[in-house]
Design a protein that fits this description.
- There is one protein chain.
- This protein is α+β, with helices and mostly antiparallel strands and 312 residues long.
- Helices cover 51% and strands 12% of the residues.
- A 6-stranded mixed β-sheet has the order 3-4-5-2-1-6, with helices on both faces.
- Helix 5 packs across helix 6.
- The longest helix is centred in the middle third of the chain and has 26 residues.
């Protein structure tokens, strides 16, 4: 038996919680629902209760859970959402059960008020709500909101998420060229390149009609992303870590490798303006070489033109 395929009654505390009148929904979230779990993974149960129920440890432990429930007195500090909720970690024979209790109104307001965007918390909440495995839903509240979110945001991810991620990627691309290739600021360049690799991983999911995985799983092969792409991104990351900004020819080769990953993910012919960000090498840099302070860029511009002529 695995938690992802187990019957609700086989999961710790679910049967007891299902019997509670104030519990209107239970869902399996986290890595067990995503299929990325391992022996270190908590069992993440989201418990939706009536809005009148007090979200307090004393109530959940004293009223909703059996007397045998043993709390792990540990605050992980990992859930930074502003949504009102209560998290309790419970030690069991099968591992740590992470119970997140929240009012049903929180889900309702999210479904009603959610607007598409790149806010990380919005994307993580959306991914949880839209893909949660529902274990208990006597009034079909969870399934109704999940279906609504899937239709509005998951099925249309290519329409709203791909353009937003692409625009951010293009902006960071230009900044990375200026900060790394031109200004030779190693720390800035390494940071920006890391951000770009993450955006490409998110774009791979969005282009495939999926919501991006949470940050900690984004570059993991377990999350279902194409293995060749993950290998290509890992290869780019490895190159970035070993190259200094003074090695300009090496940097150009890295951007060329990155361009091949972009083309595999984005289908440039389908983009409204193509891969316009690459023009920083084929148009902006040639313009800069006419300035007296930047004549030394001319040999590099010729190399860039040769590298990108078949990719622009």
């Amino acid at each position: 038996m695995t938690f992802a395929t187990a019957r609700p009654s086989e999961l710790p505390y679910v049967q007891e919680l299902m019997a509670r009148e104030e519990v209107v929904g239970i869902a399996l979230c986290g890595s067990h629902r995503q299929g990325s779990d391992d022996s270190f993974s908590d069992l993440d149960l989201w418990i939706f209760v009536k809005d009148t129920v007090p979200l307090s440890e004393s109530y959940v432990l004293g009223q909703m859970l059996p007397d045998t429930a043993r709390q792990e007195m540990l605050f992980e500090g990992r859930d930074d959402t502003l949504t009102p909720h209560l998290v309790i970690n419970l030690l069991t024979e099968v591992g740590v059960v992470n119970i997140k209790a929240l009012h049903t109104g929180v889900l309702g307001r999210f479904a009603e008020e959610a607007r598409p965007g790149l806010d990380p918390q919005f994307l993580e909440d959306l991914e949880n709500y839209a893909t949660m495995r529902i274990l208990h839903d006597p009034h079909a509240i969870l399934s109704r909101h999940r279906t609504d979110l899937q239709e509005r945001f998951v099925a249309t991810a290519g329409a709203w998420l791909v353009p937003a991620l692409t625009a951010r990627y293009a902006s960071l691309y230009w900044r990375s060229v200026y900060q790394g290739f031109l200004r030779e600021e190693n720390a800035c360049w390494h940071h920006l390149m890391g951000e770009m690799v993450q955006l490409l991983a998110q774009l791979e999911a969005a282009c495939d009609g999926r919501l991006p995985a949470p940050a900690k799983w984004l570059l993991s092969e377990r999350t279902g992303a194409r293995v060749p792409l993950m290998r290509a991104l890992s290869s780019v990351q490895a190159e970035v870590r070993t190259v200094s900004c003074t090695e300009k020819r090496a940097i150009l080769r890295i951007y060329h490798s990155l361009a091949r990953v972009e083309s595999a993910v984005l289908a440039p012919a389908a983009l409204p303006h193509g891969t316009w960000w690459r023009k920083v090498f084929t148009e902006r840099l040639p313009h800069l070489t006419v300035l007296p302070d930047h004549h030394e860029l001319r040999p590099l511009v010729q190399i860039a033109a040769a590298l990108f002529k078949d990719l622009v």
